[in-house]
What does this fold into?
Amino acid sequence: MSKFVKQQIIDFYRRKLEGVDGAVLVNVIGLNGPKTTRLRRELASKDIRVLMVTNTLARRALAGTPLEAAFQGLEGPTAVCWGATDLVAVAKEVVRLADDESFAPFAPKGAVMDGERLTADQVKEMSKWASREEVLAKIAGQIMAPASKLSALISGVGGTLAGQIKQIAEKENAGGEAAPAVEAGASPQG
It folds into this structure.
């Protein structure tokens, strides 16, 4: 491959992966055309992008970026997966598809998160973490819980008071008697 072509590929990798700070690296060697197409379609449905790279050129292209650590000491053809809402969502989907026998030998090779390289086992462990949406939902629930409890307490007291007033009004109407009037300045206990 000529220097010109290599430089074009390096520039392409830089453009494609610009701004990406976390990715999962996967093995896709051994997948035939139809399996690769299904795999890409499955990942695209979860908003995950896939880019096949050559390690040497990717190492050059990603020098000085957060993804640089991912390609240190990496061997064999590799694909980079990134996107979705966060890296945990990417890891969950990659591990799910790796466990599916119809996509064998697709498997995670590692990842990079916050500039640090992760092993394939760490990617599998990360796939068990709560995703960004799950964490946000939990936080929102914790924020709303005190207000919800306060609202329930206030409406409970108001409901009890309304029920008591209704009972008094029903007694007055049923008995035809008016409730004893309390004279101004007189104590209700008498």
Notes: The first helix runs from residue 3 to 16. The two ends are 107 Å apart (CA to CA).
